[in-house]
Design brief:
This protein is an alpha/beta fold and 483 residues long. It contains 15 helices and 19 strands. A hairpin with a 3-residue loop joins strand 3 and strand 4. Helix 6 runs parallel beside helix 9. The radius of gyration is 24 Å and the shape is elongated. It starts with a strand and ends with a helix. The mean pLDDT is 95.
Length: 483
């Protein structure tokens, strides 16, 4: 998609479709005779993402922007996406006149490009044999009165990030019979080659020799080959700091022998979202030539109840040397992440962030509204939360009191893979999962765990994007790390 900046007299803009914002609580602007007539006859028009096409001398699309005092960067991006999604199969050239005041020019440009590109992804185009509308839209222009410094840089950055967001969405929306660990590995190899990233691949046999008992224990239930994939980007060879990103890549999660209920199990193809975020973030940082050093670790396997699957009651020795008692094989994500975090530290990571669709408990706590954050360093945790807020990704911190560590103590091993001893079964499930991970973090290494179980996919139809994988996390990581 060609995205460009245009300036000059808005009344003289030549385009197939002109897009204008309408706020529901503000005086309606004078946009032309038929637009004024429509707004006069429909004074309540302007609810968020509400749309109306006006056939005047210039075809004009009015898109509701909601209440002005609630206008933020997330709504701005989605507002642009709403207009783009509407126009995809109807128009070739679109010009958008947004309300960007209140944002920095680079921030507005970035969100503008993100809104456009994210709206173009539709997984059904890859699988439906009929009823597919062809995409006509070729050019989208952002009209501004004055081309302030930062707009073009923001648009370029937004397109790079959007490419990575849509990579996550494509991988996540693929069915698990296609999106296997081997397929994920091939995509990672392609990303590494195109962006000159160093790649190391540890297969199941090598992982066993290294002592990655958490990863191997989960992988042994599947007949698919499993991999720990490491990507390295060195954009600042002089820095002593190295970011470590670790992602859970369960390409399908049946729960293992502690099998999940059949209802909605098909959604467990999205359980590889954390690894996809790491892959996409490494791609974006490399394309942006960020002045940082980053290592990305992706633990990719399936969790199936095969004949060799691990059993409740098994004890595995993690890569860190700690032993873990398996009380529930559906608490597998923390096992592979623990080994991934230890590997990242062994390779020199000085700051750690892991991402995973880890617990239903986090969904119960926060719903699909925001991701959960837990960490060992309050300042670092807040840095992550603020980075997300600046790009429209909401993150909420959950407590990590020492009492929660008591809930994962085992009588016969170092730790258990689910919490026990709480007031009821499953109590504080998201936090005890994070406590399991914290057990392998070296002292004084800042670490944040992001539980994206409620935000990694959204199956509700939205006016600004197709249902499915959301790509949540990559905007936060790129904003945080590239600074």
């Amino acid at each position: 998609m060609k995205i460009q900046l245009v300036t000059g007299n808005a009344a003289k803009v030549k385009t197939d479709l002109l897009v204008l914002p309408i706020f529901e609580d503000e005086k309606k602007p004078d946009y032309g005779r038929l637009v004024v007539k429509f707004l006069k006859e429909n004074p309540k028009f302007g609810k968020l993402y509400e749309i109306q096409l006006i056939y005047d001398d210039q075809k004009t699309l009015l898109v509701g922007a909601g209440k002005g005092e609630k206008w933020d960067i997330e709504k701005f991006q989605n507002w642009v996406g709403t207009a783009t999604k509407y126009a995809l199969s109807k128009f070739t050239d679109v010009t958008i006149i947004p309300r960007w005041q209140g944002f920095m020019p680079h921030q507005a440009g970035e969100s503008f490009a993100l809104g456009i590109e994210v709206a173009t992804h539709d997984p059904s185009r890859d699988y439906k044999s009929q009823d597919k509308e062809a995409i006509k839209l070729k050019n989208v222009s952002l009209w501004v009165e004055k081309a302030e410094k930062g707009f073009l840089e923001g648009i370029r950055k937004g397109q790079v990030i959007a490419q990575s967001v849509n990579l996550i969405r494509k991988l996540g929306d693929m069915p698990a019979n296609e999106m296997t660990p081997s397929y994920f590995l091939n995509v990672a190899k392609k990303v590494a080659k195109e962006n000159r990233l160093k790649i190391t691949v540890i297969d199941e046999g090598q992982a066993k020799k290294l002592g990655m008992g958490g990863f191997v224990g989960v992988a042994q239930g599947s007949e698919e080959p499993s991999y720990v994939i490491v990507l390295e980007y060195n954009g600042d060879r002089r820095s002593k700091d190295k970011w470590g990103l670790v992602g859970k890549g369960i390409t399908f999660d049946s729960g293992g022998l502690s099998i999940k209920p059949g209802l909605n199990m098909h959604e467990m193809k999205y359980d590889m979202s954390g690894a996809a975020v790491v892959l996409a973030s490494m791609q974006a940082l490399a394309k942006l030539k960020a002045n940082v050093s980053v290592i990305g670790v992706m633990c990719v396997t399936e969790n199936l109840p095969g004949g060799r699957a691990q059993r409740p009651g098994d004890i595995v020795r993690l890569y860190s040397g700690k032993t873990a008692e398996i009380l529930n094989t559906d608490a597998e994500g923390r096992l592979i992440l623990a080994d991934g975090l230890t590997l990242a530290q062994a390779k020199g990571a000085t700051k750690l962030i892991d991402l995973a669709t880890l617990t239903g408990a986090c969904v119960i706590s926060l719903g699909g509204v925001c991701s959960g954050a837990m960490g060992n360093n309050p300042v670092f945790t807040q840095d992550v939360i603020i980075a997300g807020s600046n790009v429209g990704e909401r993150i909420w911190e959950l407590p990590m009191y020492e009492e929660y560590s008591e809930m994962i103590k085992s009588d016969i091993a170092d730790i258990t893979n689910i919490g026990t001893g709480g007031p009821m079964p499953g109590a504080a499930g998201a936090i005890t999962a994070a406590k399991f991970l914290e057990a392998v973090i070296e002292k004084d290494t800042p670490w944040v765990h992001l539980d994206i179980a409620g935000t990694a996919w959204d199956l509700k139809p939205r006016p600004f994007c197709s249902p499915g994988a959301t790509g949540v996390g990559v905007k936060t990581l790129v904003n945080l790390i590239s600074k």
